[in-house]
Amino acid sequence: MKTIRMLGSAATVAAAALALSGCAGFTGGGNDTTEGTLTFTTWASESEQVAFEQLVDEFEAQNDGVTVELNVVPYDQMFTNIDAQLSAGSAPDVFRVDYGNLGVYSSQDQLLDMSPYVSDEEIAQFTPAMWEAISYNGTPYGVPHQTDVSALLVNTQLLADAGITDLPTTQADAWTWDEFAEAAATLKASLPADTYPFVYNWQLGGTPRWLSWLFQADGRLLEEDGVTPAIDSAAGTEALDFTRSFFENGWVPPTSSVKGATYADAFFTEESVAMAFVGSFVVPDIENLAGFEWTALPMPVDERGATDLGGNALVATSGTDQPELAAEFLKFMVEADNMSAFCAATNELPTRVDIDPSSIDFAVRPDVMPVFVEQAATIQPSDVGQLTSPYLAPIAVSMQDQLEAAFVNGQSTADTLANLTSAIRQATGS
Q1: 70: helix, strand or coil
Q2: Which helix (H) or strand (E) covers residue 269, if one does?
Q3: Is the pLDDT of residue 159 over 80?
Q4: pLDDT tens-place string over residues 110-148
Q5: Beta bridge partners of 196
Q6: At 99, phi and psi to the nearest 5?
Q7: Half-sphere exposure at residue 294, Cβ-oriented, CA atoms within 13 angstroms
Q8: Alpha helices in 290-429 (DSSP H)
Q9: What is the pLDDT of residues 314-334, one digit of tens each?
Q10: Measuring CA to CA, which of 52, 124, 155, 372 is 20 to 30 A from 201?
Q11: What does the angle CA 119 – CA 120 – CA 121 come to, to the nearest 5 degrees?
Q12: Residue spans of alpha helices (H) in 303-391
């Protein structure tokens, strides 16, 4: 994320994506396949692995003679392994990929074209934004399995001890950047020296989550043409100055920068921070580990609200020798009942228009999930187009280096934005 502890022009994953309409089935055309073996590689949290195993068992039960070999690997090994296997011609038939990385594979013809296997009626069962997230040049390469977004979790006792008791619960009353900074400063004065006001979840592959601050400032990473850098702007300066202040003011642990090795939720459950920006998919882990009362608040807002485009697609490789079976399995995984069951078990959000997230019986802390559901509505189409760019992966590598230099090594905002602009030009060839 583990789901990248991290959606293309997907973002009507907002109200439209979360509205309830009729419940048409996405059934894959019946059980025509009588035998065959599929290999399926994914990373997974504990709750995700259990949900995947149950769905694999159901698929096998519905398809006599079919076997799905599930291989669960750590997230930090996932794509290194997939890249090597693709090069060697030994890639799994099916694998999981976050929306931010999907374009790297679809733009290089490494994924199965799903066009022959889905009808217009079936495509219409997904939010347009999420279907676009798995498409490249209008061609679908996979299925949008689920989404997750970040919100702000808070240790209610630590905030109360600092006198912070009037907590926002909806987007309408979300803290502004100034109000969030005031809360952080108040906590800094109240907490012990080894406890920090908050932590942000941009570690270990999550660097693109920094873009939430840029979008909140109403800025862009790329212009509408998808290749021209747009980050060196007033909004870019505002977002970078603000996030640099997290470290300058001692509001976040010094080891929690973009190259840090500890996830944000770990800082939170260990009570070394009072607040943490985390995705909904880690709610089960936090509830199991946190020995204190906590709740969820909306992300802060500046010019507008925004959050990260989290979640993952399921894709088949173009080299699979079982394309029909692979496509049938992908479609099975995103049938309405199956998607609802997976999201309920993992505290993640659906990608279909016929599933109302508020109707899902989330397994863990259903009281906090409305905050995440409403937070998803802040994602705008322009955000999605940038976050699913095929150039995002190489840009993210440079972004990690430049943000680390700004946050930890004192590199100026102007130099950081200039260097990011150069890196974007190199990645996009603009």
Answers
A1: strand
A2: helix 264-269
A3: yes
A4: 999 999 999 999 999 998 878 988 998 899 999 999 999
A5: 273
A6: -60, -30
A7: 28
A8: 323-333, 336-346, 369-376, 381-387, 392-408, 413-428
A9: 999 999 999 999 999 999 999
A10: 52
A11: 90
A12: 323-333, 336-346, 369-376, 381-387
329 token code pair? 């399995």
- In 3D space, the residue among 312, 382, 379, 344 whose CA is nearest the CA of residue 5 turns out to be 312
Residues 6+ apart with CB under 8 A from 62: 31, 332
Among the listed residues 17, 271, 278, 317, the one whose alpha carbon sits nearest the alpha carbon of residue 146 = 17
| Predicted pLDDT at 17 | 35
Region of residue 243 (phi > 0: left; psi between -120 and 50: alpha; otherwise: beta): alpha
Residue of 131, 14, 57 whose CA lies nearest to 341: 57
CA nearest to 385, candidates 205, 129, 76, 157 = 129
pTM for the whole structure: 0.82
CB 16 within 8 A of CB 353: yes
Q: Kindly list the structural domains of the chain, giving each domain's residue range(s) and its CATH number in brackets, ordered by start.
A: 36-148+310-384 (3.40.190.10), 150-305+391-428 (3.40.190.10)
Residue 153: is its pLDDT beyond 50? Answer: yes
